[in-house]
Each structure stands twice: as C-alpha cells, then as structure tokens.
Amino acid sequence: MNFNPSLTARLRIGFLILFTLLLAVSLIGVGRLFQIRVDFEDDTSRYFQLELEAERLNSSFVLEQSAIMPVASGGPPDAREFNAAADVFDGSADRASSLTEGDTEIARRLRRLTASEGEWREAVAAPRLRGRAPPASLERRLTRRVSASAEELGTSVRSARDEVRDDARTDTRDTTILVAFGLAGALLAALILFSGLINSMRAPLARLVDGARRLAGGDLETRVEVGGPVEIATLGQAFNEMATSLERDARERDRIERMKDDFVLTVSHELRTPVTVVKGFAEMLTSESKGLSASQLEAADIIADSAGQLQKMINDLLDLARSDAGKLRIDAEPTAVKPLAQRVGRHMRPNFEEKAQQLTVSVEKDVPDVEADSDRIAQVLSNLLSNANKYAQEGAQVRLNAQQVGRRVEFAVIDDGPGLEPEELEHVFERFWRAQSGETQAVGGTGLGLAIAKSLVDLHGGSISADSKPGKGATFRFVLPIASDSEGRPPAEQPGNGRPSAAETPA
Amino acid sequence: MTRLLVADDSETVLLMLQRRLEATGYEVSTATDGVQVVEAIESIDGGAAPDVILLDAMMPNLSGVDALKKIRAEGCEIPVLIISAHLDAQEPERMIAIGASGVVPKPFEWDELISRIEELT
Description:
The complex is a heterodimer of chains A (507) and B (121).
Chain A: H1 7-68, H2 79-99, H3 104-129, H4 136-216, H5 230-287, H6 294-324, E1 333-335, H7 337-354, E2 358-363, E3 370-372, H8 374-391, E4 397-405, E5 408-415, H9 422-425, H10 449-459, E6 463-468, E7 474-481, E8 505-506
Helix pairs in contact in A: 1-2, 1-3, 1-4, 2-3, 3-4, 4-5, 5-6, 6-10, 7-8, 8-10
Chain B: E1 3-7, H1 11-24, E2 27-31, H2 34-42, E3 52-56, H3 64-73, E4 80-84, H4 91-97, E5 102-105, H5 110-120
Parallel strand pairs in B: 1-2, 1-3, 3-4, 4-5
C-alpha cells in the first residue's frame, strides 16, 4: 500500500501521538502517586488505631491485674472492676483483630496476646476472684507472658507503621522516576517522529535544490525524482513540468535560430552569384570604356559601386551568419603586429586622402607577436578605420596605435570626429545599428562592421570596447593575446609609460 | 596567348568570366560541370591544352574538387585554381593537398584573380 500522508496530516498525527503519550504518562504517574498517598494514609491511620488498641489492651490488662490484686487498698479483688476491664480488653481485641486484615504477623501476635490473656484469666484471675491465690510462680510466668505479648504487639504495630512509611517513600520515589522516564521516552519518541518527518522532506528537497541549480546551469534535461510528502511531491511534479516546458521552448528557440541561420546563409550565398555577375560586367564596362557615352560610363560606374557595396554587405551577413552558427573559423598563428597595421593603413590610405584626413599608424617598439588570424584582424582594423573615415569630418586626425598591455597587445583606432552619445555607445556593437545623429545620418554602410569586428575579436579570445564623448571624437580599442612563443616585454613593467614612438607613418 | 579552361555551374557567372577574361587577353573555353572538365582534358590528345584551369568547387554531377582529383589521378599536371564561395581558414591547405595550385574566393576580386592566374603562367 502506498501510504503517503500530506505534511499537515503528518504533523497532526505527530502532535496527536505526542499529546496522547504525554497525557497517558502524566495520568498514570499522577494516579499512581495519588494511590500511593491514599494507601499510605489508610495504612497509617489503621496502624495508629492498632497502636491505640494495643495500648488499650495493655492498659486494660493492667486494670484487670489491679482489680484482682488491689495493692493500694489491700482489699479483696473487685470482680466488677475486673469485668469492666476485661470487657474493654475484649472489645479492643475484637477491634484490633478487625484491623489486622492481611497483616499476619500482627494477627499472630494479637492471637498470642488474647490466648495468653485468656490463659491468665483462667489460671490466675479466676482463682483470685474466687479468693484463692494461684501458685506464685505460675502467676508470675503467665502475667509476664501477657505483658510481653502486649509489648511485642505494640512493637510489631510500630515497626509495621514504620515499614508502611518507608514503603510509601520508596514507591513514591520509584513512581516519580518511572514518570520522569516515561515523559523523557514520550519526548524522545516525538523527537524521532519529527526528525523522521524532516528527513522525509530533506531528501526530496535536496533533489529539488540540486535540480534547480542544474536547470539554472543550462542542463535543460534535468528532471527530479518525485517523492516525499504530498506537498513536496507536488512541488517536484511542478518543477518537472516547468523543466519540460523550458526544454521544449529552448529546443523550439534553437530550431528557429538554426532555421534563421540557415536561411541567412542560404540567401546570402544565393545572392552572391547574381551580384558577382552584375559587379563583374559593370567593372568590365568601366574598364573598357570605348564605345560608351559619358552618361553610360557614369551609370556603369554607379552599378559597379553599388554591386560592390551589395557584395560587401552580403559578405558581412555571411560572416555574421557563420559566426552565429558557430561556423566562423579563424586560423590563429603568431602574427607580427607592425606589418599587419601598416598593411591595413596602406590599404585604407586612399579613403582618408579622399576626405583630406590624416591617418597616423604608430606601433610601439618591440611589441610582441599576437596569436591571430592576420586576414581577420586586418578586417577588424579596416572596419574600425572605415568607420573613423566615414564619421569624422574632412581634415580630421585618425590614429591607429598598437602597444603591449600586460600579456596582451592593445590596438586603438582614435579619431577626433563628432563622437557618440553615451546611449549610442551602448549599442555600437549591435548589428544593423547605426549612429542616428543628424550630422552622421548621411553616412553609408550596413551597420554590420562593428558587430563583425566584435565577433572576430571574441573568436580570438580578445575583447573590444568603445569610448567616446560627444564632440570629442571616439576611440575603439581591442586587445589580442600575445603569441605563446613570442618574447614579450615582462608584464610586470607598467604599460603605457612609453608613448608609441616607432613606425610613425603619417599619411 | 594563354589558354584558360573555366568551369562554373552558373551560366551567367561563366559568361561574365569568359567575357572579362577574354577582354583581359586570355583565350577561354568553358564547362558547366566537372564531367565536362574531365571530358575536355581527356579529349586534348595532343591538341591545344589549357595553361590554367579555373574550377568552381561546387558544381552538379561532378564537383570541382572531385574533377580535380580525377584529372590528377589521370596524370594531368595543368595548374588548377579552385574557386570557392565557402572559404574558411583551412580550405587552401586542403585544396593544395589534393593537387590545387591555389584557391580564389568567390565573389571575385578581379585584380586578385588576374594576379593568381599570372603567377601560374
């Protein structure tokens, strides 16, 4: 049978059992103590009466003796007085006898007393009352026997009374100890019960905590074993339902992401072919210009330019789609920084000259090789320089610096263009984001350059950041790891002390 | 005059390549899949063999990569440039390992394409 009471039921049962146990132990203990007390009082009063009767027996025997032998008056035995004393004696003996119930020792002593007194009456009192003296030795012996018996009865009764008192003490002590043990036992039982209750919750709760942590850690296949009290079991079921739902959503999201990536990859790839053809033919027309009118040549130029932009955009989209799909690979190897920076500077120079801007490439002396895919880093640098070129005004200053910072090499592209608003800075690395200010709105581009730059730098294990103040220009920095076999400057030396000095190549 | 054999499954790309290469001064023959390339090489038989072959990596029937393997297996030593739209960092090494002289990315940078052809002639 699968008995699985709820937490509330378990608590109720626990409290009920505890209450019953405590009540039972208390009632039994109190009842027992009460009984001991009552018995003690009964016995004590009985023994007091017995003692009283024993005294009375003793004194009435003395009266009997003085009635048959009136020493003081010296007169004859007084039968009337003797009979009165004997009545008192017999009455006392009867009362005492009725009080000896179950007390054989006292009963025996009492019987011996009455027997010896009866014998004395016959052998001593009766002759004396008739005026004859019994033999002195017999009288002495019998009289002493009665007195001794009476004395023994008194002693017995007193000792029995003491015994009863001692017994009552012992019983009270034992019962108190018993009740104390009983209460302790009941509390222990309750403790075991409650710890069992807590234990029955602990394992499933621990499983839930563990499950929640694993789920939070991204293991969406996590399910917990449902168990424990109903409430905890329900919680476990709810947790599993939540995990199932999360997993389903995540799989759906992954599927849609994959579909999107595949879609972008396919579309970009399919777009390439016609763009290649358009660009190819347009370039052909512009390169063999004979037979074309000036306006036709201009049109061919525009077609070639636009196709070129389209092609660049498709390449960027493909790079991003590949990056998203985890298919963008880099071939990192030790790469010299200076030739790379100079190559990109040379390649970009015509664009800067067109806007009468000054491009300065400066690479710190002895900068170590970086672990990088040179084509990809060239692409990052071109994207950054291209942005500076596009956004900065005519005649602006643009610098490309490279220097060692710790175990890394920092590249910086610095312009003194219009700069970016703080809220714009937050978005610069998002794809399709472009500066919105009126001044820069006219600038062309896909809005993908910085997103690609970030993807590529991330793939290299580096990081990229932007820093700018409106009207104060913008600085884009990224760092790349130093090639492991490169003899870099020890990182302990403070970077940035020596300004980049070598390889100044003003445009 | 330098002779080129150009293979691409897209007719328009092929036509564009042919026209531009001819305008640049090459003699161009074309193929639209790997099978035609292999046939063209097999049918040379002492005739005018191409000096350089441009092979699109991905084509129906027989891909450029497979066509390259096949003509190399048949003892053809003509330099081959593989045109690849799926260029990743490791691709040039792989292509050179199976006998290509180099890889040019698609879409083309025209000057780069021409200079790669010039290197091989």
